[in-house]
Specification:
The structure holds 2 protein chains of 2 kinds. By secondary structure, chain A is an alpha+beta fold. Chain A contains 9 helices and 6 strands. Chain A has one domain. In chain A, strands 1, 2, 3, 4, 5 and 6 form a 6-stranded antiparallel sheet that branches. In chain A, a hairpin with a 4-residue loop joins strand 4 and strand 5. Chain A is globular and about 50 Å long. By secondary structure, chain B is of the alpha+beta class. Chain B has 2 domains: 140 residues, Periplasmic binding protein-like II (D-Maltodextrin-Binding Protein, domain 2, 3-Layer(aba) Sandwich); 122 residues, D-Maltodextrin-Binding Protein, domain 2 (3-Layer(aba) Sandwich), CATH 3.40.190. Helices cover 36% and strands 20% of the residues of chain B. In chain B, strand 6, helix 5 and strand 7 form a beta-alpha-beta unit. In chain B, helix 3 crosses helix 4. Chain B starts with 13 loop residues before the first strand and ends with a strand. The model of chain B has no long low-confidence stretch (mean pLDDT 88). The chains are: A alpha+beta, B alpha+beta. At the A-B interface, helix 6 and helix 7 of A face strand 1, helix 6 and helix 10 of B.
């Protein structure tokens, strides 16, 4: 019954995204999904840029690391271009759904702001591990972006270390489904709340680098003081969850 | 609070899921003070804003009225001529002391030989003065060790450092001995700078030069605030809470990033320089 209602929604409605400045534009479902997918990809690209610079960030012999918001942005642009073919430096000309331009630009700015605020910590000398890692970057960037937009971005996992990243009922169901199947590279999307919300979850899987903190032995404290999860490479780490409010025209 | 970390009283600022945070025993005490003052002020929440500034500048900022109080592992019982106009609370930490660490074992051997290596009692200031003769001794400017060196180490080559990390990194001059607060040096050589070792007496007790009591610092005329803080410290002490805090930070095994994420306080980032500068060391003027 629920599925039937969903099909009716999909076929009959034009979807409206309510955007940052309160403007509303009509979007097809595929455009809304594409916007959410790009936002998830951008947040994940930012996490990867932090991961690639982890040794630099944690270098206790250097003070000023030179990892400025602008340096981060350039690397983010390169990574995102490689993943999606979209040049963030020329967003107005990019072939993306029109509302995605504002939203992607807002997420870039939120991510740069996080890197900017972290400069004080990043550039401390004599201190190695600073807890500026993909997960903490991602949490902050998502919070900042979501606070200025009606599109909600969040990192979540079945057993998150950060209580604020606890999955809701929908996210729990999807994460359980993802955990039970082999690696799924494409985001999963669905319209929920009787057609009011588009939910997109983009899974994140553990890589070798992640296992320093999340691998075995389970229960042993990692460098940040959290018990390791005992995960293996390729296990589901969590997901980037995007929630887009929809409206009818 | 001090810009350079006095682990475990103030840990380095760290990035958390909530943003930048600082934590440590002194930060926990600040939380207690803020909560108590909130109750005293009719329940209106008093939000502590942490300022991370150079240790020596804390006193200046308090004198200029920019701070109401600060907590930064400050020894209240150290004779310090530049601290006029300030007042201290009753001590919140009695386990402090002035201690020494060295990097090279031969320096430790030399000092012990000069002191009589079999001794098991702390040396007098006069004995210690002779034991350090000709050695390069680093102290942090404005801390108790600085005033101790001014008063007692005429025969040593004293180096003033902007921070403890600056003392560790100093190559010109190269440092033989660092004098400083015992709990801070202990924590540092145990967890952070394992290439340094604490000076021990013949009976394997740490070499201590004095006992230090850490207190909250306020303006001399802040009578009401001092009464309030003293009353809180009295109650924390009587209830065993202060002792629990001390054990929690000095004896337990923990990773401070997690504590920072769970219970740390945000700080006023705009008051910090663009990037961390731990400063440098320079020869002290001989008086």
């Amino acid at each position: 019954m629920e599925g039937c209602a969903r099909k009716i929604v999909l076929l009959a409605l034009m979807i409206v995204l309510v955007l940052t400045q309160g403007r509303a534009e009509a979007l097809s479902q595929s455009e809304a999904e594409e916007t959410a997918r790009l936002l998830a990809a951008l947040l994940d690209a930012g996490r990867l840029v932090i991961d690639r610079n982890q040794l630099l960030i944690d270098d206790q012999r250097r003070g000023d690391k030179g990892f400025t918001p602008n340096v981060f942005e350039r690397q983010l642009q390169d990574e995102f271009l490689g993943r999606t073919g979209i040049d963030l430096a020329h967003l107005p000309a990019a072939r993306v759904p029109p509302p995605a331009r504002d939203l992607l630009a807002a997420l870039v700015q939120a991510s740069k702001d996080v890197v900017g605020d972290a400069q004080l910590v990043i550039n401390q000398r004599g201190i190695g591990y600073k807890n500026f890692i993909p997960a903490t970057f991602g949490s902050q960037a998502a919070i900042r972006f979501s606070s200025k937009s009606q599109v909600r971005l969040k990192q979540t996992a079945l057993q998150p270390r950060n209580e604020k990243n606890q999955p809701d009922r929908y996210e729990t169901a999807v994460l359980q489904q993802l955990a039970a199947q082999s690696i799924q590279s494409a985001p999963l999307s669905e319209i929920t709340d009787g057609g009011k919300t588009l939910r997109v979850l983009s899974p994140i899987y553990y890589t070798k680098d992640c296992l320093k903190c999340h691998g075995g032995p389970a229960g042993e404290l990692d460098i940040s003081g959290y018990p390791k999860e005992g995960a293996k490479e390729g296990d589901l780490a969590g997901a980037i969850s995007v929630s887009v409010p929809l409206g009818e025209r | 609070m001090a810009f350079e970390p006095f682990r475990p009283f103030v840990f380095p600022a760290i990035f958390t899921d909530e943003g930048l945070r600082v934590t440590g025993l002194d930060v926990e005490l600040v939380r207690e003070i803020a909560a108590d003052l909130s109750t005293r002020c009719g329940g209106k929440p008093i939000i502590p804003v942490i300022h991370l500034v150079r240790f020596r500048d804390l006193f200046v900022e308090l004198n200029e009225g920019k701070l109401d109080l600060f907590v930064s592992a400050v020894a209240a019982n150290v004779p310090a001529p530049t601290r006029a106009g300030l007042a201290y609370s009753t001590p919140y930490f009695n386990g402090g002391g002035l201690a020494a660490i060295v990097r090279r074992p031969e320096i430790s051997e030399l000092i012990l030989a000069r002191l009589d290596r079999q001794r098991d009692q702390p040396p007098s200031q006069e004995e210690f003065k002779g034991a350090l003769e000709g050695l390069t001794v680093a102290v942090q400017e404005g801390r108790g060790a600085h005033y101790f060196a001014q008063a007692n180490l005429a025969m040593a080559k004293v180096v003033l450092c902007d921070s403890l990390p600056a003392a560790f990194e100093s190559e010109d001059p190269s440092i033989d001995v660092i004098l400083g607060g015992q709990p801070i040096l202990d924590y540092t050589v145990t967890w952070v700078r394992k290439d340094w070792q604490r000076m021990m007496l013949g009976n394997r007790k740490p070499l201590l030069l004095s006992r230090e009591q850490y207190a909250v610092v306020m303006a001399e005329e802040s009578y009401w605030l001092r009464w309030a803080v003293n009353d809180l410290l009295f109650r924390l002490n009587e209830s065993g809470r202060l002792e629990a805090m001390r054990r929690r930070w000095l004896e337990e095994s923990y990773a401070y990033p997690r504590r920072a994420a769970k219970e740390g306080l945000p700080f006023a980032a705009e008051n910090m320089p663009q990037h961390y500068d731990q400063g440098r060391c320079r020869w002290a003027e001989r008086k």
